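User: Hey, quick favor. My workstation is busy. Could you predict this chain's structure for me?
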Amino acid sequence: MLKMWDKVLRDNVQNRGTLPNKFVTVASSHGQSCKTLGIQKSSISTTTTYYHIYGGKKEKIKATWVPKSKAEEATKLAIDAGFRHIDSAYVYKNEEEVGRAIRSKIADGVVKREDIFYTSKLWITFLRPDLVRPALEKSLKKLQLHYVDLYLIHLPIALKPGEEILPKDEHGKLMFDTVDLCATWEALEKCKDAGLAKSIGVSNFNHRQIEMILNKPGLKYKPVCNQVECHPYLNQSKLLDFCKSKDIVLVAYSALGSNQDKDWVDQSIPVLLDDPVLSALAKKHKRTPALIALRYQLQRGVVVLVKSYNEKRIKENMQVFEFQLTSEDMKVLDGLNQNARYNPVIFAADHPDYPYSEEY
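Assistant: No problem, here it is.
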């Protein structure tokens, strides 16, 4: 089953440069699974779950996000458990540890490189075209791998180049940069042609920014996906419809809301999982509010990234495939939308390419 999933993903993402229309959020009904590991710099160990379907073949893909200090050990354990998709990024600052774990398991004969599907992301201080390949090569050097399977532009907001994650001037003001995102995309296309990235995509782009890339003269590869914040309070219905119309997969992060990192998250937005409507539907279906929120996305055709902080909730999340919401339930959940964004990237709100100035 793992090899079957690999073939489906590689045939449709790497070779054609796009994900199939039926690539939506579901999981195996027969217990088999293709698992994925997402490694993020974090103070708390979390778990992410991806669900995909293609051509009627259902797959469950599970991931765990861990602190940098535990990244190597966690990656090894995950590979031993059958995880094959590893999702990380330059900004998480743990690719060296993750790469060491991957190479160790390859050396042990547990996996081959072609069994692993590794995703990384281009940070926003490297959006100038001449910096894209060096940034990817820097990640590859840390990983000590020859290529990544998927490379995403992390945000469409360019900051001054350099080693600082969020470069600031002497007054503490963020230092913006001016970059043509189409030129950045061309640099990603060259990375794909050079074999450094098997496929390419974007994250946190609005429809105008995606359209700009799609309409770029000489476009060679379109984005395979757009990863954005998406949950019942921000259901992204217009962006979802747009992406579907362009055969671009919408991937949801913060699918259960997020109120934890005060430096990044808008604390004025209510806690999603405390919503009385979710609670009522949870009672109706004898599930948790989290499962209702996840099932909502699943039935909309959104690929979901789910974080959970304890083993019990991780197991509960797997129950999302054991029930269905009615059409009336879906309408009620649609009504929760407030266009409320937990992660507004407010530090860059004045940037000319700030993605959330658009309606979607």
